[in-house]
Specification:
Helices cover about 60% and strands about 5% of the residues. The chain is built from 27 helices and 7 strands. It has a 3-stranded parallel sheet with strand order 4-3-7, with no helix packed on it. A two-stranded antiparallel ribbon has the order 1-2. The protein is globular, with a radius of gyration of 27 Å. The mean pLDDT is about 90.
């Protein structure tokens, strides 16, 4: 189909504007949280924290080979490029939605002023998302969320392309491609899979011959949910799900060969795309410097994929009981992040929210113009194109309220997790664009404007992303931001030669890993992360891999006693009162942990490492470690 030269040029221009903006504000080096780990793992092909993001690591390795800038900047460049491509897909999807809402075909221009209305609205929506708080934040650092939204928006555009060409077996290749992309996307972040309900709605309305398949898939989903509720996570529920899938395939083979072939092909290609996880299995067997969970055996690999390091409770079943008040989860987290996305410098109203990290109030100024425009677009879209409205609404609800319910985030949080709701913000940006399409169309019909006048009116909508971008530019600009780098460099250089450095969590560990593995700074210092020190695999790595720490526990004791979760072994760490400890010539008082009377594995390991070490290696504790993790060593 002929898309039109102007449409293509506007799309390329939207992509270039986003890319240039992200390159201008790109972080020059490592940032806090997961960025240091992802950069280091990309450089050495290591294994990051579960579930591992293998495709990100493989692509990151390719980017580290580019002859451009520093290694960290090259990996950051991935986020800028993938995020700009995601904005391009949002523009294409916005045009397709607008054409449908105005009574046309998804891929065929009208040949009149309606094309300008569609393109102007789609450009507004795409660029508004490009300069939104979360999208811009993710686009300028080494994180997985730029890729995640790219896979989300690309799959949306492909379903519109499939819908706008033809249906039937000959065109199912686009559905196969979407399945493969979902498998690949799972190798970066699972968020993209939440687009599936929207795609099923679009497919349901687009092709009547697929409605039986979609109905069966929905029934299979209900069956799987009931099996999980009745049998709990494990072999029983997995067997019930497998039996349900086998029943669906058997039924389709006899009744609907096209749907049978489509389902088999989709499952195969999804698994093929998801097979990037084999790279982690292979790399772990080669013992890279960063090898989280050490998934080099099949059993360890399955635990890694299931994220058992973070607990074995079912996330789905966990939704039934709130880990925190629901008003905190929905209002103080999700809706606060939603209202922070599109700040516009006029007509703002204050609203009070809780901070995610502590029980303090903060005021968010809600901009009437962008959020009012989005609401207008929601209503306009529902009235003009109910079928595709349901698809966008599903994206908004599932990746907003549904995700908030599923994640069931406890109070407090270690940081503000606005980045997980990116799909919700994307859906609302599409409605903002559709609202502008409707307003430009209203102007065109009543004023009878044509050509350059109509284009000028449509272009006025770009004042909205311009205002949002101007409001957020200073906050999002990472030019010259070397805080994480300098912190890591300074703390490593302050350590004595061949020393042990206890750190607390992500922010005081991952930048250090980056410096040691990528910049080769102070590799003689053994960084010991206290959070990971609660896991058996990490204790073994500290014992067995250079620079080694003198740890005298055997594998059997570590697995069967020290980190075991049976009551009989947990009781061995019972610590009801302050007790005196003697280790490495020191004697001090170790108080019971606050809130419970059980020593953590990390507490035992800190005491034993100091004792076994006998000052052969100097011992340091990072200033970021809270005193509650000192096991009483604050007296020295």
């Amino acid at each position: 189909p002929v898309l039109g030269l102007r449409h293509r040029l506007v799309g390329v221009l939207v992509f270039l504007i986003a890319l240039v903006l992200y390159l201008k504000t790109l972080a020059p080096t490592v940032s806090f949280w997961d960025c240091g780990e992802f950069i280091a793992c990309s450089y050495i092909l290591g294994v990051p924290h579960p579930p591992g993001a293998p495709l990100y690591i493989l692509l990151g390795r390719l980017f580290t080979l580019l002859p451009l800038g520093e290694i960290a900047w090259r990996v950051n460049l991935m986020s800028a490029l993938s995020s700009a491509l995601g904005i391009w897909c949002v523009y294409l999807s916005g045009v397709a939605l607008a054409r449908r809402a105005l009574g046309g075909a998804a891929l065929r221009p009208f040949g009149d002023g309606r094309d300008i209305s569609c393109q102007g609205g789609a450009a507004l929506g795409a660029l508004a998302l490009a300069v939104s708080y979360t999208y811009w934040f993710n686009a300028t650092e080494a994180e997985v969320y730029g890729y995640s939204i790219l896979f989300t928006t690309l799959s949306m555009w492909l379903i519109f392309y499939w819908e706008g060409t033809q249906h039937g077996t000959g065109n199912d290749r686009w559905l196969f491609l979407i399945a493969y992309l979902f498998g690949l996307g799972g190798g970066i972040h699972m968020l993209c899979l939440l687009t599936i309900p929207s795609l099923l709605i679009l497919a349901f309305y687009a092709d009547e011959k697929l409605r039986r398949l979609i109905g069966l898939l929905l029934g299979l989903g209900v069956w799987s949910g009931l099996a999980l509720l009745a049998l709990g996570p494990g072999a029983g529920s997995n067997g019930a799900m497998g039996a349900g899938l086998a029943g669906v395939l058997y039924y389709l083979y006899g009744r609907d060969r096209r749907s049978f072939g489509l389902l088999v092909g989709v499952l195969f290609l999804f698994v093929l795309g998801y097979s990037t996880y084999e790279a982690l299995y292979i790399r772990s067997g080669l013992n890279p410097a960063i090898d989280e969970n050490d998934p080099e055996t099949f059993a360890a690999f399955i635990k890694f994929l299931n994220r058992e390091q973070y607990g074995t409770d079912s996330q789905l079943l966990g939704m039934l009981g709130g880990r925190a008040p629901r008003d905190y989860q929905f209002w103080d987290l999700q809706m606060k992040y939603f209202f922070q996305q599109f700040p516009f410098p006029f007509l703002e109203l204050p609203a009070s929210f809780r901070r995610a990290t502590e029980a303090l109030q903060e005021v968010v100024w809600i901009s009437v113009v962008p959020y009012g425009l989005g609401l207008v677009g929601l209503v306009w879209h529902a009235r003009r194109d109910r079928k595709r409205f349901w698809a966008v609404l599903a994206l908004f609800v599932v990746m907003g309220f549904g995700l908030s319910l599923y994640l069931n985030m406890p109070d407090p949080q270690p940081r503000e997790r606005h980045y997980v709701f990116g799909g919700m913000f994307c859906a609302f940006a599409l409605w903002m664009g559709l609202a502008w399409t409707g307003l430009v169309e209203l102007f065109r019909r009543h004023i009878a404007a044509r050509g350059i006048v109509l284009a000028g009116v449509a272009s006025c909508g770009l004042l909205l992303p311009l205002g949002i971008g101007a409001r957020l530019y200073h906050e999002q600009d990472r030019t010259g931001d070397y805080i994480a780098y300098d912190y890591a460099y300074n703390i490593l250089q302050s350590c004595a030669e061949n020393s042990i450095l206890f750190t607390n969590g992500d922010n005081d560990t991952f930048p250090l890993w980056f410096l040691q593995e990528v910049e080769e700074v102070r590799r003689d210092v053994r960084v010991v992360n206290l959070s990971l020190l609660n896991t058996g695999w990490y204790i073994k790595q500290l014992r067995d891999r250079e620079p080694k720490i003198d740890i005298r526990y055997t594998d059997n004791f570590i697995d069967s006693v020290l980190t075991d979760t049976q009551d009989i072994n947990i009781a061995k760490r019972y610590w009801p009162e302050t007790k005196s400890i003697t280790a490495a010539g020191l004697e001090w008082e170790v108080p019971p942990p606050q809130g419970y009377n059980i020593l953590r594995v990390q507490d035992i390991m800190v005491i034993k490492i100091i004792d076994w070490n006998q000052w052969k290696k100097p011992v340091h504790i990072a200033i970021t470690v809270p005193t509650t993790n000192y096991v009483g060593l604050t007296t020295f």
